[in-house]
Amino acid sequence: MSLAKQSSGNSFTITPVSDALGAEVFGLDVSSPFDSETLGIIREAFQQHHMLCFREQALEDEQLVAFSTQFGPLEVFPEKGHTKDKIEVYHVANVSLDGEHLASEDPKVVYQRNNGRWHTDSSYRYEPSLASILYGIEVLPDDAKGGETGFSNMLTAYAALPDDMKAKLEPLHQVHSYADIRRLEPSIPPMSVEERDAFPPVTHPVLRVHPDRDYQRSLYFTSNTSLEIGGMTLEEGKALHRWLVDYVSRPEFCYFHRWRKNDLVMWDNRVLLHRAIEYDFAHYRRVLRRTTIGGDKTIMGPFWPEARTAATGR
Prior knowledge:
By secondary structure, the chain is α+β, with helices and mostly antiparallel strands. It has helices at 36-49, 61-69, 107-114, 154-159, 163-169, 181-184, 193-198, 234-248, 305-312, and strands at 3-7, 10-16, 23-26, 51-54, 90-93, 131-138, 149-153, 173-176, 202-205, 207-210, 216-219, 254-257, 264-268, 272-276, 287-293. It has one domain: Double-stranded beta-helix. It is built from nine helices and 15 strands. The strands form four sheets. It has an eight-stranded mixed beta sheet with strand order 1-2-3-4-13-6-15-5, sandwiched between helices. The chain has a three-stranded antiparallel beta sheet with strand order 12-7-14. A two-stranded antiparallel sheet has the order 8-9. A hairpin with a 6-residue loop joins strand 2 (10-16) and strand 3 (23-26). The chain is globular, with a radius of gyration of 19 Å. It starts with a strand and ends with a helix.
């Protein structure tokens, strides 16, 4: 059901797009900064729906950055000269910044192919990102196959787990390593020494606790930097990772966004996984620009004192 909103001259609607997650925002121009009331409404909707799509926007990179910084400081991207124009804006495309349609084996395109695995952006950082924002400049035609962005709700996925699986996952961690993308996609050039120093491997709990959501728990893992779960043998960890990938792909947890030109989509990396659905890279052009809202804290796991107190009351 659409919910009409009115704030300081802005009249817009927020409409859920699925039972799992997500909402569309119609009638709101994001090219200028929000007043405090509108920003509060959008923040509340983001917390409730986890993904928002602002339709029919017209943005230059500077306006995309200005919109994004209303929600927090932006990350800068680790690659030097790979798929970006300015340091806060990531060029997610199989087209160069000069407009050249890139070959499927180009490293810039291979990066996009790797994003076809379920993941959460910037999980390789010690303080992972809060949110990602993606703007559609060139998108696939309606009759083309693929090109969607899929999302999976890790709050509802955790809640639906059997109790024995919740107990099994509780003490486990996963290593998140930006360098290890090369294990999955060997054709990507090695990281520089500076990049390796800036982004060493980190480990995060597989169950994440959310203080801003009354200490709810969610799943938190990735498939685009590693395919294992730690805390068990290598083969057991790989088998559990495969099980988790299949599990979070269940339709009741997922929404797949079909892009329209000038869509602006923002999603919560704390509680959603996402993936790019493969398309014919050689035949179709696809150009999106992304910013990422940085996180400001490490991930809380089930054994943090605050989390244990919330779970046990002691």
